[in-house]
Amino acid sequence: MFPNWKTNHSPASIITLALAMSSFCLHAQEPPVGNDDSTVTYSAAYFNQYEPYSVSDMLDRIPGINIARGGNFNNSGGPGSSGGSERRGLGLGGDQVLINGRRITGKENEGNSQLTRIPANQVERIEIIRGTSGDLDVRGGSQIINIVLLEAESRLSFNYEVNADHNHDGEIKPGAKFSASGQQGNLDYLVSFESEPRYEYRKGFETSTLADGLANDSVERKQITDQQPTTFSTNLGYQFTTNDIVHFNAQYQQTDAPGDERRAITSLLANPVATEFEKDKIDNDSDFWEIGGDYEHTFSNGNRWKNLFIINQNKDNRLRERFDIDRSNTKDLFLETFNRYEEKILRSSYAMNLNPIQDIEFGIEHAQTTLDSTLKLGLETATGPIADAFGGLTQITNSNATVEEVRYEAFAVHNWQINDRMSLESTLIFEESTIKQTGDVRKERDFDFIRPKVDYRFDITPSFQLRATIEKDVAQLSFNDFTANTNDSDDDQDAIAGNPDIKQEQSWRYDLNLEYRFSDSNGVLNINLFYHDLEDIIEKIDVSSDKKILSANGNISDGKRYGGSIDASLRLASFNFPQILLTSRIELEQGNVRDPFLGINRRLQRQGRGSYRYGIRHDLTSRSINYGINVSGSFEGGQFLYDIDKIEDFDMDDFVIAFLEIQGWGGLTYRFEAYNFHEQERCRIRSRYIQGTIASGVLNEIENSCSHAGEKYAIKIRGTF
Fold this sequence. Notes:
The two termini are 45 Å apart. The longest helix is centred in the first third of the chain and has 13 residues, at 11-23. The protein contains four helices and 37 strands. The protein is mainly beta and 721 residues long. Helix content is 4%, strand content 59%. The protein has a 22-stranded antiparallel beta barrel. It has a single domain, classed as Beta Barrel (Maltoporin, Chain A).
């Protein structure tokens, strides 16, 4: 039997593993890094023995790289956070990857998305920047990855990959990637195309038990989602003079996801037991595009003036139709949603040196964000007219809304290199915004926020660094919460209500970070502690009417979130196995908020107790082979979701991926991957209440369901020319 990944890994055992890994090299001599340099540099020659295919392959060989790729410390998510591609406007943070010291002007099309597209043979060096500087395009990150490309009058390289996935139902889905990267005089460019299979065949089973313990029914599900995202992107840069440079970036992605689901519903209360059959047909058309650009001028005194813009649009149209197979495929549900999300950002900033140890950057940003949304719900009823626009069923809901936010932001960032070992970066952001909603509801509201941040860094030794931040953050609202929407996870709930009064989550975030780097790039140990004071947390609130119990996303109360994490990454050089790289991470967290229905203090929604991951990579460079396995998961318990008439408890097995990579015939790389060969299960226990809320009603039934998408095997053939 495959081992039980969930129960074999307690928090204590993984903490022990992380600390044990780090203890191997605690007495190693510290590397000869100058006190005035907190940047760790890896030349291209360092990676030659591994024969990497892309920048992503190069990064995988760097101990502790997950810390650098973790963004703003390791706990930047959660309530009140503005991180990720959903952040407010562009912001000073965001993606922690620079290309030639420059931030790619985009939100989806950022530096991190280019790592698999840039050939390894185009790289001169990779820098892990651990300090702060006014010269950086990204501020406030724990660490920043800077990919420095070769400079030449003319260079050109092509990367390509063909692949195929074998799914557990026997379906084979092909894919391909192609990119061209190069430089011609003052022009540098990267053009890429990729089509990746995301096919899923999910099998599930659910049992329902009434409150008195009597078996109610069972549901067997088989669901297919046939998704194959296709992405085209381009990044262009042109240096007019030594002081003037311009960049243009564009991306288009199509992520249509048609599918169907079949259900066999067996009523265990009937005599004799009876089974009904249903099927859902799902059409989902989704398109995304983004263009961005920037112009930067450097003055003779070293001061910089930069302007940039971003425009993007995400359009999604989803139609779900349900059919009763026992009644000759009679349609009894029509549910169509359409969302068009657009964002336009303009930003201008000026950076100047105040003296040799201080600099300041200030600027303004304007952002306009718009959501156009419609929802149509039609049901089969005995009465009421039918309409073609509702699939030939009776109109139940016809909702439409437009939500627009116009935001202005002024910011200033001061960087002070206190001495050779200490730096202090201070940020102050002031923003004003207006949110206007039209359609079913007409409403307009104004907001303003002051967001300070302090980032202190102290290089205790060249290898041992302390980082501490205090920050006020404001999360971007999901505009879908303003309008009626769908709940795809509950067959008994066709649509959910919107809330035009919802407002932004806010947080005060306190982080303390200690990092130790072993000599000769043999490993990294990182410890992080965090405390987040949360305001206006968004969860479910009561919006019931006299006729119907109903909930919507809304602000419930204030709360808190706190915890810590340990990251350990180690090469086994002390045991004469320098080509073996071990990685591990454990995060434990706690928090609480006042439940609006039960009136009790409880965990945050879907918070859980923490998460972990660990892995091993072995590079047999003499044979041009590398292999490894990575495991990630969360600790059992605490993954609750509270709604007005139901409580859900979630659990999931570990995610496992094993790989084998061989440099073979024709200079090609052959990679084999195995995903979730233990058939990772995703489970939920749902308790439903009737005749009131979860506080005032009575328990009606308990649904226990589990599903899995089975194992998947992939082969990838890669080449460069």
